[in-house]
UniProtKB/TrEMBL annotation:
Annotated GO biological process: intracellular protein transport
Topology with respect to the bilayer: Single-pass membrane protein
Organism: Dissostichus eleginoides (Patagonian toothfish)
Residue segments, region Disordered: 1-30
Protein name: Mitochondrial import receptor subunit TOM22 homolog
Lineage: Eukaryota, Metazoa, Chordata, Craniata, Vertebrata
């Protein structure tokens, strides 16, 4: 585990390096799939019953929201 080191103004100039998470994010930018391809890929992860239940829940939520604003 990294240790925390106290620095005083007399210690001189400091150099910083990018966080490891920022370095790893650069690799993700090379993906060539579109948003629709990603969403379609998500449908393969869930069974039909879960997708149907999510669709019905979304439709009910939209319907209720419309009724509240009338």
């Amino acid at each position: 585990m990294p240790q925390i080191e106290e620095l005083s103004p007399d210690s001189g100039p400091l150099s910083t390096r990018p966080l490891e998470d920022e370095i790893d994010d650069d690799e993700d930018e090379d993906l060539d799939e579109t948003m629709m391809e990603r969403l379609w890929g998500l449908t393969e992860m869930f069974p039909d019953t879960v997708r149907t239940a999510a669709e019905v829940s979304a439709q009910c939520s939209v319907s209720l929201a419309k009724q509240f604003y009338r």
